[in-house]
Amino acid sequence: MRKIILLPLSLILVLLSSCASVEKHNYQVTKLHAVKHLHQDIDKVYEQLQRHHPHLYQFTSKAILDFKFDSLKKAIDEPMDSRTLYKQLAAVTKYVGQGHMSLSPPSKQFTRKERKALKGSKFDINNLDFEYLDEKLFIVNARGNDSVLINAEVLKVADETPQDLIKEYNKIIASDGYNTTFHNRVAGNRFLAYYVKDKGRFDSISFTLRNLDSIFIKSYKRVLKTDAMQLKKDSIKMDSLDALKKKLPKLTKSEKKAKKIKLKAERKYKRDHGFIYDRNEYTRNLKFVGKDSSVALLKIRGFTRGNYKNFYEESFKTIDSLKSEALIIDLRNNFGGRLKEITYLYSYLTDKNYTMINPSEVNTRFPLLKSLMSNTTPTGLKILGGLIAPIIAPIEYLKSSKKDGQLYYRFNSAKEKEPNSLNFKGKIYVLINGNSFSASSILSSKLDGDNRVTFVGEETGGAYNGTVAGMYKVYELPNTKVRARIGLAHIDAPHKITPDGYGVKPDVEILPSYEDRLNNTDPELDWVLEDLGKNNY
Fold first, then answer.
1. When you count CB atoms within 10 A of the terminal residue's CB, does the N or C end of the chain come out lower?
2. pLDDT in tens, 123-150
3. How far apart are CA 531 and CA 537, in angstroms?
């Protein structure tokens, strides 16, 4: 009997403890912090950067960076909340000049009951994608019923203009080196993410939009799962319900088998092409343009999802079988991803042995363990990390080496590779813009250094001479709970340019306009097709 009573009591204590923890966290991140504690957090983030960041003073000297951190501390002479510190601190850390190094304000936590209510909630604002061109923020893509809003210009977000908001966001957006193309591009592409960082979580929002000659207000509200289900139920007519109740005809054995084979093939196709379920689009697409499939167009939205080996193998087999004479690789708005993927893709773009990246400069022989043991890592994962550390540590040690006083870590992509037998030997064009970042920029640097392609578009947001990424330590500041994501390895292709701090620049610079979007034209792609037409492809 005592055990029966103690069990519910223990569960109640856990629940009460959880609620108290949530309440404490939410108070911590919304209250005004004492100046002393704000200064402590500023010192902590700079200390973490100095300890872990291998290229901290590459673009801003130590003297200047010291001055900026000290000036921030001197300027803070009254209490402030966590979000305000985040904005002021991010305006300083951006001078590190590394787009992967970022700060995030703390978020409100929810009780178990609140999480349950929010699970499966619907917020149709997530169906919108934005772009910023010609100092105009507009809806470049919309899923579902909002497709009619494509190309509508955003005049106001609540009571603020997007121009004023983006001007503020650009003060805290870090790019690689001295690059500027990344700022407006990413501020438009990730507008809602920056808005949430600025304002905090919201459950409703309104936009003042202009579509053609019409100006109107479009409002969005988060709908909880229970409400969404009720709305759906109310929208279904009774005769529809009757129709649903009717039994579907029973499938024969052969039909069931055919259906199973079809579903399996569909799953494989989605996996290989990196299907993004919440966006209903593929990460990788191959299609053919021009006469007789003479020009292959490979659109890659990122190097993060799915079985890329299957996709590239099948794609280049198809390109080879159709005897395509030119290849266009579209890396616009590709924020990067896996080193292994760009290394594998490059094997189809060269006929020589190659090394994708150099050994990476690091500040520790054990970057993976450093990443795993961040103070933001859940306790269970830390315990697991401690248990497997005796296995990981020797592997990491063997991957690292010291030369001229500098530690280096060798990723697999730093090993020499052989070209694929199906490597493409024709003319290659690569489309780039300010959102071509990280791995897509490293791939572009390698291609440019090997004089393999013609670049069309805009300077990449990622630096030509490399970036600090690979693995990260995510450190939470003790008082304000602001989080800092710090890269642990300098990743760079073998080729270098001077001056340092800029991206891969296009051979042919073409900047799209808002008018292009309204007319559904793609000036970068159009130029390539026109150039190919001149050469009779």
1. N
2. 999 999 999 999 999 999 998 889 999 9
3. 9
